[in-house]
Design a protein that fits this description.
The complex is a heterodimer of chains A (about 160) and B (about 190). Chain A has about 160 residues and is mainly α. Chain A folds into 2 domains: about 90 residues, Rna Polymerase Sigma Factor, Chain: A (Orthogonal Bundle); about 60 residues, Orthogonal Bundle (Arc Repressor Mutant, subunit A). Chain A is about 70% helix and about 0% strand. In chain A, helix 1 packs across helix 2, helix 1 runs parallel beside helix 3 and helix 8 crosses helix 9. By secondary structure, chain B is α+β, with helices and mostly antiparallel strands. Chain B has a domain of about 100 residues. Helix content of chain B is about 50%, strand content about 15%. Chain B is built from 5 helices and 6 strands; from the N terminus they run ααααβαβββββ. A 6-stranded antiparallel β-sheet of chain B has the order 1-3-4-5-6-2. In chain B, a hairpin with a 4-residue loop joins strand 3 and strand 4. Classes of the chains: A mainly alpha (about 160), B alpha+beta (about 190).
């Protein structure tokens, strides 16, 4: 299966939500998430890679999304802006969510490394091993991030008694 | 209540803007067209270059290495790159399957460690002439520094020098060095301290 077998429209229809949700989980910001989405899909075209199947294509897109824009997020400007926004936004605004239980907001309040692991585990339903491949880190590291993230979420969602 | 169900349900409402997706689809189609055109151009350049090379060989014999100009080196790189990996040099794809900046950097290190540099150019601008070729001694010194470069979160600081490394296997890597302290690969935004 070649990547060119699928048109740009088809590709976006199938995967844009997945890529955007992970990008948004990472950045917590519409503009930055869109920048990442754009970069990922243009990289996809430029790479002209062959995929064994849809799972392979999906894994490639998740990996690139999880790693694209790392330098942007590490930049002094981005960190400074993130700190500023954290102070400014007491009520976390999440575009698109009309009614919510506070779960998404609670996840967005975690730092990026925890948000991404939570998203890949609970939303994309990837295994620990798959997450470690996507994030290019050890399985132990993923396990420990997941454990800490759950502990923090339990505190944030105290009273609601969620099953994790 | 189940955390996973709630998180999934709320995520379903996070969607990219339709206008943004339309614009992106157009951009992707344009990029695809450009890629097809580049391939055609490189294929025709390859045939012309091969024919020209045959003529040169027949008329003048083999030209000494020192007399080859920059364009010849670039052509050689295009041909080798096309033959070995199926990628065109026109795309500056020297980093194979590397998908992330870190993988690109690792690919660069592998090239430095496993391949010999035929010529290393250093210039104040991104244009290279024969007189910009760095001496072997200086090139060796720089390669040692490059091999021990480490990712940094600092911001680029100092005068920028442009470098182009032409490897014996035909691959060409361009990079910048700021104030003799920081390395930045072309096509990458990551900064490495030297």
């Amino acid at each position: 299966m070649k990547k060119t077998d699928i048109s740009a429209e088809e590709l976006l229809e199938k995967y844009s939500n997945m890529v955007y949700r992970l990008a948004y989980a990472r950045t917590g910001n519409v503009d930055d998430a869109q920048d990442i989405v754009q970069e990922v899909f243009l990289k996809y075209i430029k790479a002209n890679k062959e995929f064994h199947d849809e799972e392979h294509r999906k894994a490639w897109l998740l990996t690139v999304t999880a790693n694209t824009g790392n330098s942007m997020m590490k930049s002094a400007w981005f960190r400074h802006r993130a700190d500023f926004e954290e102070v400014e936004s007491e009520d976390y605004y999440t575009p698109g969510i009309q009614e919510n239980s506070g779960v998404y907001e609670a996840v967005q309040e975690l730092s990026e490394k925890y948000r991404v692991v939570i998203h890949l585990f609970y939303y994309e339903e990837l295994s620990i091993k798959e997450i470690s491949t996507v994030l290019k880190t050890s399985e132990n590291n993923v396990k420990s991030r997941l454990f800490r993230a759950r502990e923090m979420l339990k505190k944030k969602l105290e009273g609601a008694e969620y099953e994790f | 209540m189940n955390f996973k169900d709630s998180y999934k349900k709320e995520n379903e409402e996070i969607k990219p803007d339709a206008a943004f997706l339309n614009q992106l689809a157009g951009q992707m189609e344009r990029e695809k067209r450009m890629q097809r055109n580049r391939k055609k151009m490189i294929a025709s350049t390859g045939v012309v270059a091969a024919a020209a090379a045959m003529c040169v060989l027949v008329l003048h014999g083999v030209e000494p290495l020192a007399q080859r100009n920059e364009q010849d080196i670039q052509n050689k790189a295009e041909v080798v790159e096309t033959q070995t990996t199926g990628h065109s040099f026109g795309n500056r794809v020297w980093y194979g399957d590397a998908e992330t900046e870190e993988e690109m950097f690792q690919a660069f290190l592998t090239l430095l460690k496993e391949e010999k540099i035929e010529k290393l150019y250093c210039s104040d601008m991104e244009e290279y002439l024969d007189e910009d070729v760095v001496s072997e001694k200086e090139a060796d010194k720089l390669i040692k520094k490059l091999c021990s470069a480490e990712l940094t979160e600092a911001e680029a600081d100092g005068a920028c020098k442009h470098y182009m490394a032409v490897f014996e296997n035909g691959k060409i890597v361009k990079f910048e060095i700021y104030g003799d302290k920081y390395l930045k690969l072309k096509d990458s935004e990551a900064l490495y301290s030297l």
